[in-house]
Design a protein that fits this description.
about 190 residues; mainly alpha; 3-stranded antiparallel β-sheet
Length: about 190
């Protein structure tokens, strides 16, 4: 089951990284009906404002999955599914319908024109690039990863010695370093039976 953990963690981290990268790339090309037919490139973060923050959250969830216990594995797997659903829905809207609302903030920043109707009148066409479709595919992988984590979480075992509670004094022999550590914690190492 070690591979199940590795697969779940790597899928979440990879999709989170793709989402962060995608948020900086051009998702849409808006052509303005201003006589000169100016083209405006609309970044993923402008088309889907929650793309970068949710992608960073997926990166954090993926990293945390490698060390959390059973209950948090189920919680994080569920959060991953929810985030995949949100990002997938928003990416699909942009990829398949290329709505004018997705370019409104960029058009307003470039022209100073505000209001949904005014922006819609100024934009003659909106064309998507491959990035929304790529992000949608990554969201499908993220959804599968979240379901995989929830399905296999029980078999992952413990997170290893590094994150396990310290062993008791009776479980192993005591050396000089342990005695100094006990003194540092305010305990008397001579009071313990040998």
């Amino acid at each position: 089951m070690r591979r199940a953990r590795l697969l779940g963690v790597l899928a979440a981290v990879a999709v989170g990284a793709i989402g962060v990268i995608s948020s900086t790339q051009t998702w849409l090309i808006a052509v303005l009906d201003d006589g000169a037919q100016h083209e405006l490139a609309v970044a993923g973060a402008a088309a889907v404002p929650v793309l970068a923050p949710l992608s960073l959250a997926v990166l954090a969830l993926g990293a945390a999955l490698s060390i959390v216990g059973l209950v948090l594995r189920y919680v994080f797997g569920g959060l991953t599914v929810v985030i995949a659903g949100i990002l997938g829905y928003l990416s699909a809207q942009v990829a398949f319908t290329a709505p004018v609302s997705a370019v409104a903030s960029t058009v307003t920043a470039a022209t100073g024109i505000t209001g949904a109707d005014a922006v819609a009148a100024l934009v003659s066409s909106v064309a998507p690039t491959p990035w929304p479709a790529l992000t949608l595919a990554a969201c499908a992988v993220l959804l599968a990863s979240g379901l995989w984590v929830r399905a296999t979480a029980r078999g992952w075992g413990s997170s290893g010695r590094k994150y396990a509670p310290a062993t008791t004094a009776a479980a192993r022999p005591v050396d000089a370093v342990d005695s100094w550590d006990e003194l540092s914690h305010g305990e008397d190492p001579t009071a313990r039976p040998r």
